[in-house]
Amino acid sequence: MVESWDAAAYAKQTPETGTPIAGDNPVYLPDPVTDATVRMLVELAAQVWIDRERLLVLETLLAEHGVVTRAAVESFKPSVQQAQEFKAQRNQFIEEVFKSLRTIPVG
Amino acid sequence: MNAPVTAVPETLPPLASRTAGSYLDFVEGFREYILGSGADFERRLNQAAEAEEVRRGAKFGELAEIRTFLESLPLTHLRNRLTRSQQEMKWTKLSATYQAQREQLLAELDAWDERGPARLELDPKFVHPPYTNVHFHLQPGGYFKDELGGFLYHHGTKVFFRGENDKDELHAKLVSLVPPPADGNVARVLDLACSIGQSTTAFKMRFPKAEVIGIDHSVAMLRAAHRRASMLGSEVTFAQRLVEDTRMPDDHFDLVFAFIVFHELPQRIVRDTVAEALRVLRPGGVFAIYDFNGVQDQSPYQRYHRYCDARHNGEPYSQDFCDCDLAAILRHAGFSVLKAAALPDRAGGPGYMKHWYAVKG
After folding, report:
1. Nearest by CB to A1, which of B26, B147, B317?
2. Which residues on adjacent β-strands are paired with residue B190?
3. Chain B partners of A37 at a C-beta cutoff of 8 Å?
4. What ipTM, to 2 d.p.?
5. In this complex, do A28 and B145 lie within 8 Å of one another by their Cβ atoms?
6. DSSP string spanning B97-130?
7. Domain boundaries in chain A?
8. B18-360 maps to CATH 3.40.50.150
9. Under a CB-based contact definition with an 8 Å cutoff, are residues B131 and B265 in contact?
10. Which residue in B35, B20, B180 sits closest to B100, CA to CA?
11. Tens-digit pLDDT profile for chain A (107 aa)?
């Protein structure tokens, strides 16, 4: 591809006049803790929906194929390796939901 | 000559994971919820603003008055937080998922660059004017700094339109409404700032025998547009040009089209672009424009929304556009304005969008 722009000069946005644009990570609510809490709540809702939709897909497919019953899911025990994988995914989940905590100013 | 405009198949590359799709599905629904009747912010905040006007015995004047009033309400801050969040969430997820497929998608673009039937004309000496270096709608890298920007834009707008434009239904409808010149002859069409070329291909469907050219400043957009049009079998041309300096011949086109372009241009460039459209249209040719509605037709909340969109959604030029009188600019340049009217919103009242049809000579 043709490199048709100056990456260094255009690293930051260069609008010509107009309304000043907000910077990265603006805080909207008067209290930054509340602001971050709202962000976390929306992120959490997105994560919950991902899981709920996947469960809907899985339950539908499993039932259609007669593979796994609901009782088998309830009694499932992961292996050591499986448990480690689950915990890694759990930690990623926590990061995605709670990353706004880092943006709250100390003062 | 004037064939019906029909829907086209989806051409977006699939996302790398179902998880990303589910996340974006949430964002789509959440956006509709907070901007629509779910959270009901618009109706309630506008009602509060209008009640304040009654209390004061006068309409709000300057935007600053509306801001002062609405920002005294906690609900406004929450609305602004949520509106920004859904946009950031969309781009963060889209950017990450396409980055994960980066090499594959770039290889696919490379392969399509060499294929037709659409044509691609990139300009190795092209220089992006500084005014274009804006992350419009908060899209990472803006329109041209990410090679995958065309795919990002396409998927971002898919979420924006709630899946209702997956087959270019909106572009097809707007293109179908454009009045041809009085003599009915449409041999050449120019689509200004065509991005991924959805209206470009819609024009080719409507006027199959016409030469249809889409121009844009972004290589990323043009390559995605070229791939998409070629996948659809559309014999259109995409060229890297500026809307204010198309380098097209005088008196050349029967139709020039500008869909949501002008609000992303500084006022200086708005005027230059109108003059350029006049130059490249043949006498009797039509300039069709769809863009944001002006301040004079907007409710207090709509004016505030437009301000927030400008400041918090990477639209620095949109407020100046809403404040300008495009019909007057068109007339001053030498156009006859056939129509300048707000498009209705979902409730049937004047909405956020407007259309202008102007004729040369």
Report:
1. B147
2. B213, B256
3. none
4. 0.85
5. no
6. HHHHTHHHHHHHHHHHHT--SSEEE--TT----G
7. 32-103
8. yes
9. yes
10. B20
11. 555 667 888 889 999 989 999 988 899 999 988 999 999 999 999 999 999 899 889 888 988 898 988 778 778 888 999 989 988 888 888 888 778 777 766 66
